[in-house]
Amino acid sequence: MPHFKVGEYMKKCKEVRNAGFMTKRNLRDAQAEVSQLEMELQRKDKLLRGLQERKRRMDAKISNLEDEVDSLPEKSRFTQCSILSDRAVESRKKHPTRFQNKKFSSSLSVQRQRRKETFAAAQKIHGGSEETEVPGAIGIVDTALVKCSQSILVDVMSVNQKYQEQ
């Protein structure tokens, strides 16, 4: 008659019990992890809803700005508000163009740059272009004749070679 191994049977029973216990423990750990992940998901959902609302408000602002730009007259949309930057204006206030002792106080390069800017502004103001510079030139001369005193005109133009030759 075969012999029944009670010791081995008891070991197997213990292993089954421990395996079941481990399964229950793993199940509790998994449930805790799922709970933690659900809380994190809720937090991220709330964050996502906030970001979506922020995006909706930004889209509305962009749409309003686009409508404002579209309602502007065509001409004002593409013209510069100022010929010079604020920095350039401040620099010129610190170092204005002067004419003393029949000489300009600024360097030749500064004079050349300011003439270029003045003429470009006159072209825009008086309707000139690269092809026709006459409106800008007439505008500068007319402005000088009307706005400047006779003494300034005589002093500045008397040292210029164009006027000395004629």
Quick summary of this structure?
By secondary structure, the protein is mainly alpha-helical. The chain has helices spanning 6-71, 74-78, 86-94, 108-126, 134-147, 150-158, 161-165, and strands at 99-100, 103-104.
Give a written overview of the molecule.
The protein has helices at 6-71, 74-78, 86-94, 108-126, 134-147, 150-158, 161-165, and strands spanning 99-100, 103-104. The radius of gyration is 43 Å and the shape is rod-shaped. With 166 residues, it is an all-alpha fold. Helix 4 packs across helix 5. The chain folds into two domains: 6-76; 106-163, no CATH class.
Indicate the topology.
Elements: H1 6-71, H2 74-78, H3 86-94, E1 99-100, E2 103-104, H4 108-126, H5 134-147, H6 150-158, H7 161-165
Antiparallel strand pairs: 1-2
Helix pairs in contact: 4-5
DSSP strand tally: 2
| Strand fraction | under 5%
Structural class: mainly alpha
The N- to C-terminal Cα distance equals 147 Å
Largest sheet: 2 strands, antiparallel
Number of helices: 7
Mean pLDDT: 79
